[in-house]
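WARN  no MSA supplied for this record, continuing single-sequence
INFO  ligand: zinc ion
INFO  echoing inputs
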Amino acid sequence: MQKAILSMIFALGFACAAQAAETHGAHEHGAAKMNISVEQDTVTIELDSPLDNILGFEHAPKTAKQRAAVQAMARRLHRADTLFVFTPAAKCALKTVTLESEKLDDALLQGKREKQKAAPAQGTSDAAPAEGDHDGHGDLEAVFTFACAAPRSLKSIDVLLFKEYKGMQEIEVQLVTPDKQVSAELTPKSTTLRW
Ligand SMILES: [Zn+2]
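INFO  complex generated
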């Protein structure tokens, strides 16, 4: 019984990851795309944003300060329950956060505090620039899942990314629920998606 449920959850997870990894549209600083799906009690939010909007640079970290900035960004996004505010009656809770970027090491995106390393392993201290560094741009793909105890009460999401990230100027949102499809453009002056 439990095994069946677990494998279902895994299957759903993979489906979401596959969706998140698809096409890259035009990369425009300040703009981002967000796909939100509401299925049964699960809300999945996929955010695709230029790294510049969130991090302020779009390359692998070159200094300790930049490395710390990447980790701070990851830790903040792993606490996404204060970045997306749902209709309170729906009782939604953050379940998973997945962050990916072709420019950033996965290890830096885990949202964990890094212990001071004694010395870097040989040969890795000045790692070669990540693949694709020469094109000068990089995106962050984030997938957040929430579980809602009363999903029928869910009618709105307030997106606080604008308050957190001054580089974020507009987010093109597509929302799909079992009976609705909504397109909207959110901006710092209009942060709430309602349906
Ligand atoms: Zn860029």
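The longest helix spans residues 2-20.
INFO  checksum written, moving to next record
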